[in-house]
Amino acid sequence: MLEKLLAFLDTRERRLIVLALAILITTSTLLIFLLQSERLRDKLENTEVQSFQSIAKEGKLIALCENSTLSHFKNKNISFGFEYEILNQLSKKLGLKLEILTFDNRNDLNKALQSKKGHLIADFRAISAKNQSSFIHSAPHITSHLCLVQQKPTKNKKSKTILIEDIYQLDGLKINVQQNSIAHKKLKYFADEYAIQIKIVAVDYSREELIEKISKGEIEYTVIEQAIISANKQLYDNLDFSLQLSFPYRIAFTLHEDAEELRDTINMLLSDFIKDDFYTSLVSKYILNENKYFHRKINLLLLNGIQISKIDQKVREEAQKIGWDWRLLSSLIIQESRFEAYVSSRQGTFGLMQFMPRTGAKYGIYPNSTPEAQVEGGAKYLAFLQNMYSDVTNPLQRCKFVLASYNGGPSHVMDAKKLAKYFGEDDTNWDDVVSNYFAKLNEPEFYNNEVVKGGAYNGAHTLKYIQSILNRFSGFAQSYPE
Length: 482
What we know:
The protein is an alpha+beta fold. The chain has helices spanning 2-7, 11-46, 52-58, 82-94, 106-114, 182-193, 207-216, 226-232, 260-273, 277-287, 312-321, 326-337, 357-362, 371-388, 395-408, 410-422, 430-439, 444-447, 460-479, and strands spanning 60-66, 73-75, 78-80, 97-103, 120-126, 135-137, 142-144, 146-151, 174-178, 199-203, 222-225, 239-240, 249-256, 292-294, 343-345.
């Protein structure tokens, strides 16, 4: 059609028509390009992942964490955790407030980062080439190798537990691992590389939950980073983790793929931070479990069969004021400080009673207070806790509520009481009811319950704490006069 039309036109007219067509095509192409650019600009403007300048303007860094020792946890409503403390220091250097969002498992953490609910994930995650392609990593802040976790063989002749000491002994074993973790991928590699049959069970449990299940005998084996085991080994003396299964992996923060500017900023700060003494203290505190250091040594412990300590008389006086046996109060002090009057922990607790600074100040106790004043302040705090549980009429049961609150914080104990009441059970019975709910506060089904206000909590240490104090008291009651 166009050719027939052009046949009637002279050369000059043909050129004008071709020129007009060229202009039309060019204009249309340019218009399409501008529309696409506008859409791209709108998309970039509306994206939830922000540039570092935008984060600085908002004034906060949002970290997505799991509830664990090396990620983030709360004790007496105060935040702790290896990666939390690193990020808290980095945030301060950047003039930002650190905000924490916790999630139940790795899949939920990944989804939260993909949907840009936070700026980074801090869940003690190993860098892997096979990690999700939409994520990037910061520079590593520590390394850790993988270990097989198993129960130690017992001296019981009927026990069939055999210690696994060689990779080839993994053949035929059922091993539970955290889903999508580096351990999950490593076991698949072992099965292929060493031609062994491993039944790999990928679960949504956290790595600390897997450790606890091994200790309780609910599962037989798991594979976890050695640093996580070291951070929890004081809770579980029946575990072996001597079989190393990898070279050290690099542990880092995980970011969305379009957060390169934030990653570079974090990397710049991390390079200096990991050379700092404070970083060394964090490794000692959380991973090496070197929790105590001393300003000056004044040890009041005697345990000579006549006196438990040099301040027995003061302990007797204060115990009498709150209706306690003085030997029970002595057992608590030994558990907290072994009667070291000026011991401090890197968590900030201090003195005979290991007060947090805010709690100590409330009762007029400071790191330089006399031992007698420390015992007096501790007794006042114990009296306060006893009044919280005035509905518990059985003295021994009330004592256990108080000890749990002293160690783990009243909010978590009250949450356990509320759960007991919610499920129609006796919320004044620690032994048979409330302690069970307290132990379940690390399970999403329970810490997400509408009556729970204090969030997730791993109560294993607190339950062991209570039993240790009462066992020691029982021994004191036989050895020292009332």
